[in-house]
Amino acid sequence: MSQMVRRFIRLFAGLFLFAVGIVLTINANLGLSPWDVFHQGITYLTGITMGQASIGVGIILVMLNAVLGESLGWGSLCNMLFIGLFMDLIMLNHFIPLSNGIFSGLIMMFLGMFIIGLASYFYISAGLGSGPRDGLMIALTKKTDRSVRFIRNSIEISALFVGYLLGGFVGAGTLIMSVVLGYIIQFVFKIFRFNVNQIQHRFIDVDLKFLRAKILKKKASQTTGI
């Protein structure tokens, strides 16, 4: 099995697990994460599904990241599309039940956050580019010279505020996830001894240049042969 095939298997395992983790936190019914408050607000405004809202926001962010000069990987595009598709697959078929109690909701929420941490390990370690939301954080950090924490908090607070105005569900779970999720992801990375800074991402522009060079070389060899 080639290295690229293994990378895409890791990527899609991560994207599917990410969708599972998100749906668990949504169905915990204790309040949504900042981005999901925004996505749910969009569903109330437009009538589309949560997955479709996630995809729509992802498309806009990918275009914005490109304008800001952030390199895109195949994983960036897959993240943009497939997490939303997997979310709708899970939610519309009711594969994960909705919690009706605080205790079961807390279990679902923390399980969801752990799965999101596991998913982050899989999709980031594939080395095929960051997701649209992480890409925006990276791009703005480079452009403003502000800290990653400041930029991430600013983005999520903005998404939360707009989503709340649109009717997204804010609750105790929103606060818990805002504070705890980063620590859980860091804990999962520590379990796997995973260092994000050591990952060398493969970007689309590099692949396109390589493909173009190969095509030109093939044409040149054919011309020489004639």
Give a brief outline of the structure:
This protein is mainly alpha-helical and 226 residues long. Helix content is 76%, strand content 0%.
Q: How many helical elements?
A: 9
Our estimate of the beta-strand percent is: under 5%
Q: What is the number of beta strands?
A: 0
Oligomeric composition of the shown chains: single chain
Secondary-structure content class: mainly alpha
Fraction in helix = over 70%
Give the helices and strands as they follow along the chain: HHHHHHHHH
Structural summary, described in words:
By secondary structure, the protein is mainly alpha-helical. Helix content is 76%, strand content 0%. The protein contains nine helices and no strands. It has helices at 3-27, 34-46, 50-67, 74-92, 102-125, 132-144, 148-165, 172-191, 204-225. α1 (3-27) crosses α4 (74-92), α2 crosses α3 (50-67) and α5 crosses α8 (172-191). The radius of gyration is 19 Å and the shape is globular. The two termini are 37 Å apart. The model has no long low-confidence stretch (mean pLDDT 90).
List the helices and strands and how they pair.
Elements lengths: L2 H25 L6 H13 L3 H18 L6 H19 L9 H24 L6 H13 L3 H18 L6 H20 L12 H22 L1
Key phrases:
76% helix, single chain, 9 helices, globular, mainly alpha, 226 residues
